[in-house]
Amino acid sequence: MKARIAIAFIAAASMRGQETSRSVWDGVYNEPQAERGKALYNQHCASCHGALMTGGEMAPALAGAAPQVLAPMPVRAAFSYKKKIARREYVRVFLRRADDGALEAVKFPREGSGLLSSLVDTDGLVELGEDVTRVQAGDMVGFLSYANLI
Fold first, then answer.
1. Domains of the chain
2. 0.70 cut: is pTM over it?
């Protein structure tokens, strides 16, 4: 009898930790949460993205659409910046028109992920690829507008 209890205890202990975590696809969200989300979507999003998330004149589809490749717009850097090689970085910038008429990207003065003001006071991101280690004022860089990222 003691052997059976020991075997059952060992079997139960060995199964512990084998539980799989649940995801949203497993029904983690309940019906009231889904209804609240639907109401918020209908109130704030459907007028542009469509009732079925298929997009419209003002905004792209949120469901069933193929991902779009973003083409950065070439602009002149009005800042200097150093970064490590083999790492992609995005620098928050605003655009201004230079005296010669060219568009220049001006780096937001502060960095950090908690700065909401940087999203309000900037126009988009300059993408610095893995092979870039330094940007000098006057270099051409790729600009991604926030409007194109939505």
1. 27-67 (no CATH), 73-149 (2.40.340.10)
2. no
The residue written with tokens 């909401």 in the block is 116
Q: How many CB atoms lie within 10 A of CB 13?
A: 9
Q: Round to whole Å and give the CA distance between 91 and 112.
A: 10
| CA dist., res. 150 & res. 59, Å (int) | 8
What CA–CA distances, in Å, run from 65 to 24, 46, 59, 148? 21, 16, 12, 15
Question: Is residue 14 within a helix (H) or strand (E), and if so which, with residue range?
Answer: helix 2-15
Burial 67-85 (b: 16+ CB within 10 A, else e): eeeeebeebbbbbebeeee
List all residues 6 or more positions away from 55 whose beta carbon is below 8 Å from its beta carbon: 49, 61, 62, 65
State the average pLDDT for the chain.
80
What pLDDT digit, counting tens, does each position of 24-66 carry?
A: 556 666 788 778 888 888 888 888 888 888 887 777 887 776 7
What sign results for the dihedral spanned by CA atoms 64, 120, 91, 74? positive
